[in-house]
Structures are given as structure tokens and as C-alpha cells.
Specification:
5-stranded parallel sheet, Rossmann fold, alpha/beta, single chain, binds shikimate-3-phosphate, about 60% helix, about 180 residues
Length: about 180
């Protein structure tokens, strides 16, 4: 088991930490699960949510993870996986992640998440709707916070937004 998974809420810095980790661990291949699904389906994440809905997207996350871990087993490749903020809401995904990788939760406070999501809003279907950004983040974190904690093997605090240090801390924990 030598894959690394990064989990955490939208805006916690999974992609940034993944890029920093890839610099420190050049023998590992960085995979962003959202980009993998977009390449697999030929559609963007917002298009998938719009046309097929969240449940269909969760199934795609599950089969993408199955593909990736199976490919790793067949080829011997090691991956740094930057997962989606909601990947771990599925029990099947949680099991695969814990069994096949060392999993790090990039933990950020609500204030940090809201600030990051205001700075880099992106196109995130889960944050759409009538509610304010802060109340939506609070609502989702109320159910997801404990899920991230129980899925991760290690928790890395990213409130400082120092993604280089976070990557170094992850490498240290692997040794
Ligand atoms: C989601 C997070 C997104 C993406 C999708 C759903 C979520 O990824 O997978 O929009 O449910 O939290 P990021 O965490 O990379 O934004």
C-alpha cells in the first residue's frame, strides 16, 4: 500500500498540497479525481451534476477509484490522489481509500474554508442554491467533519494555508 490520498472539504487545498507533494515525491503520479472523471466521461463536473445528479456523480467517483487502484496494482504505479470534497461520503469509497492508501485529512476551520472559497470560488455544484456560502459550508461540514476524521490515517491542519509545509509534514509522517 504505497498510495497517498488527500481528503478534505472544498477549498481546503487538496490540489495545492497534491502539487507540492508531487514535487517532493517525483516517483509518484499525481491524480486529481475530478479531472480523472472529467477525462473519463468527456464532461465537466457541473455538467454531470446538472444532467445526472449527485448520486450518479458519487457512482462515478467509486468506479474511478476502483479503476485507479486496480491500475496501480497491475502496473506497480504509486499515486498521490487528490480526492473530491464529497468522495468520502460513500462508505464503499471510504473503505477503498483506507485499504489502499495512506489517507491524510487536510483540516481547515470554517473561516479558512469560507475565505478560500471566496477567493477561488470555482464552479462547485454543491455550493449552489439560495444559502449563503458560510451557512452551506457549515451545513455540509456538520455531517462531513466526523467522516473526514474517521477516514483519515493522519490529520494535517491547513489553517495557515502553508501548503509546502503541509506536504513536508505528510512526507515526514510516511517515513
Ligand atoms: C464536491 C467537491 C468537488 C467536486 C464536486 C463535489 C463535494 O471537489 O468533487 O463538485 O461534494 O464536496 P473539490 O473538493 O476539489 O472542490
Amino acid at each position: 500500500m504505497d498510495h497517498i490520498s488527500l481528503i478534505g472539504f472544498m477549498g481546503s487545498g487538496k490540489s495545492s498540497v497534491g502539487k507540492e507533494l508531487a514535487k517532493l515525491l517525483p516517483s509518484m503520479e499525481l491524480i486529481d479525481l475530478d479531472s480523472y472523471i472529467e477525462a473519463m466521461t468527456g464532461r465537466t463536473i457541473p455538467e454531470i451534476f446538472e444532467n445526472e445528479g449527485e448520486a450518479a456523480f458519487r457512482e462515478m467517483e467509486k468506479s474511478a477509484l476502483q479503476d485507479i487502484f486496480m491500475t496501480g496494482e497491475l502496473t506497480g504505479a504509486s499515486y498521490i490522489l487528490s480526492l473530491g470534497g464529497g468522495t468520502v461520503t460513500s462508505e464503499a469509497c471510504r473503505r477503498m481509500i483506507r485499504r489502499n492508501s495512506t489517507c491524510f485529512y487536510l483540516k481547515a476551520s470554517i473561516d479558512t474554508l469560507v475565505r478560500n472559497l471566496e477567493t477561488w470560488p470555482g464552479d462547485r455544484p454543491m455550493l449552489k442554491g439560495g444559502k449563503s456560502l458560510r451557512s452551506r459550508v457549515e451545513e455540509l461540514m456538520a455531517t462531513r467533519g466526523s467522516i473526514y476524521e474517521k477516514t483519515a490515517h493522519h490529520i494535517i491542519n491547513v489553517d495557515s494555508d502553508d501548503y509546502t509545509t503541509a506536504a513536508v509534514d505528510i512526507v515526514t509522517l510516511l517515513d
